Automatic annotation (TrEMBL):
Pfam families registered for this protein in UniProt: AAA_28
Record's protein name: NadR/Ttd14 AAA domain-containing protein
Gene3D superfamilies per the UniProt record, alphabetical: Hypothetical Protein Pfu-838710-001, P-loop containing nucleotide triphosphate hydrolases
Listed PANTHER family: TRPL TRANSLOCATION DEFECT PROTEIN 14 (PTHR34932:SF1)
Sequence ranges assigned to domain NadR/Ttd14 AAA in this UniProt record: 11-192
Domain of life of the source: Eukaryota
Organism: Parnassius mnemosyne
GO term, biological process aspect, one: photoreceptor cell maintenance
């Protein structure tokens, strides 16, 4: 029996186009986690339950199709809630595998009808997509990259041709763009390895060490992007988010602790992250806990005054079956972050030229900066001069010991934006009146007002927006309908 305060309830969605391996993937995941002693629940695909009753989607009128999707979504939510409640009361670690999730319904109706459906039921995409599930895995259809193996014979409710299957696969992926933990499992390997990559991906997100059993090669890669960015029309379908990071007070030599607020259109999700350092080998483990709005505000006063608040615009998109996050740093923050744009993805490619060639063609990549301490968000947010700071994290030495100084860095430029490495040279980043990445200074709503309402008639000093939010909370004591059950997720890095 697992201690209830340490128990993990992990809510996973398997989505994707027809013949992508979702059914087999559920079975393989169930066997793997049951062998680890976990309780596994498998939520059936609601559409299959309804369609097997004689409903033919092609026979429905446009209005009937929208109403069908609305009722399907209501049914799905109720079925899922039943399993989520079982997971909450289960005495063991619990994996809940959902065969598709709430956002999949948006792939089958127009964007306008989807927005009307959300409004009519008082739903929003942040709650349905980001707060409801811990992790989304998109299983790419065999119609996209493994055409010889595409078949509809073994599924009573499936009749899609190859082209339609590709379209449905694309729409299913687009519906989930923006979830903070979204992975794509493509057909670049044989089917058995595809299943191993699925299991490895889920284990990595949860923080389960699989050793060499699943041959996990993918790691997080980070790239410096040259500005200005191309117009939005050159991007594939994307989702934009406002992201706010605050580092909290901690013994920084043992752990980095931060809060993240991430949202769209005034709806937010909140994450507490602890990055712990191993005392001898230099490796680190991140433990993430989803918070309510109340919990977030209760922890916000613990902000570390040695760090600026980091404001970003995060753009999420898929390019060539690869999921990307483009982080555009916003003001107010340290001058070293002005004009800074970083692209992140997960890749197993070892050949640097091949890796760079696979990146989005519409972006100009300066260089890879994976592991470069000059592009660590922890270091970028420091208020102190990097050359003299004792908090600057410069990675691990040859013996695996963490290093906490620059060890001779001389303040050379770290990127094409013209900042000195410590950011205290007073250099201009842009000419007078120029915009940062196409924005006119009204970044993240911090000119005259922020995302939580009017605050002042001037640009805020870094962090004041959160003080205003705390004041509002103390006056009203409201909770913005974030799930009440904290979900702890450990991720090895």
């Amino acid at each position: 029996m697992v201690n209830q305060s340490q128990k993990t309830v992990y809510r996973l969605v398997l989505t994707g186009g027809p013949c992508g391996g979702k059914t087999t993937g559920q079975s393989r995941l169930s066997t793997f986690f049951e062998n680890l002693g976990w309780k596994v629940f498998r939520v059936p695909e609601t559409a299959t339950v309804l369609l097997s009753g004689g409903v033919k989607f092609a026979d429905l009128s446009p209005d009937e199709a929208v109403k069908f999707q609305e009722n399907l979504l209501k049914t799905m939510i109720q079925i899922e809630n039943t399993f989520f409640e079982l997971g909450r009361t289960c005495q063991r670690n619990c994996l809940i595998i959902c065969d598709r999730g709430a956002m999949d319904a948006s792939a089958f109706i127009s964007k306008e009808k989807w927005e009307e459906l959300l409004s009519a039921n008082n739903w929003n995409s942040v709650e349905l997509r980001d707060n409801r599930y811990n992790h989304i895995v998109h299983m790419v259809s065999a119609a996209n990259g493994a055409e010889d193996f595409y078949s509809t014979e073994d599924h009573a409710c499936r009749s899609e041709g190859m082209e339609l299957a590709r379209e449905l696969d694309y729409n299913a992926a687009a519906a989930w763009i923006g979830h903070p933990y979204f992975d794509v499992i493509d057909n670049s390997t044989d089917f058995d390895k595809k299943m191993n990559r699925l299991i490895a991906c889920v284990c990595q997100r949860i923080g389960i060490d699989t050793g060499d059993r699943l041959n996990v090669n993918s790691k997080k890669r980070k790239f410096l992007v040259k500005t200005p960015l191309p117009p939005e029309s050159e991007f594939p379908p994307f989702q934009d988010f406002d992201v706010v990071h605050n580092y909290l007070q901690s013994d920084f030599r043992k752990a980095q602790v931060r809060l993240r607020k991430r949202g769209q259109k005034g709806h937010w999700s909140y994450i507490h992250t602890v990055r712990k350092f191993h005392p001898t080998n230099g490796q680190s483990v991140e433990v993430r806990t989803q918070l309510t709005h109340r919990d977030y505000l209760n922890q916000l006063p613990q902000r570390d005054d040695a760090h600026f608040t980091i404001f970003k615009k995060r753009r999420c998109f898929i390019y060539n079956n690869q999921y990307y996050q483009l982080d555009i740093y916003r003001q107010p923050t340290h001058p070293r972050c002005r004009g800074l744009v970083l692209l992140e993805t997960y890749s197993a490619a070892y050949d640097q030229d091949a890796l760079l060639a696979s990146l989005p063609k519409f972006l100009t990549i300066e260089k890879e900066v994976t592991g470069d301490p000059a592009y660590s968000m922890y270091n970028l947010s420091l208020k102190e001069d990097w050359k003299t700071s004792k908090k600057y994290y410069s990675g691990s030495d040859a013996n695996g010991q963490a290093k906490w100084s620059m060890n001779g860095y001389t303040g050379d430029k770290i990127n094409c934006h013209g900042d000195k490495i410590n950011g205290h040279g007073g250099d201009k980043i842009h000419g007078p009146g120029e915009k940062d990445n196409g924005y006119d200074g009204k970044m993240n709503g911090h000119h005259k007002k922020n995302a939580h309402g009017p605050v002042s008639n001037r640009i805020m000093v870094n962090g004041e927006a959160h003080d205003a939010e705390l004041k509002k909370f103390k006056n009203h004591g409201v909770d913005l309908q974030t799930p009440k059950i904290p979900k702890k997720v450990a991720l090895k890095t």
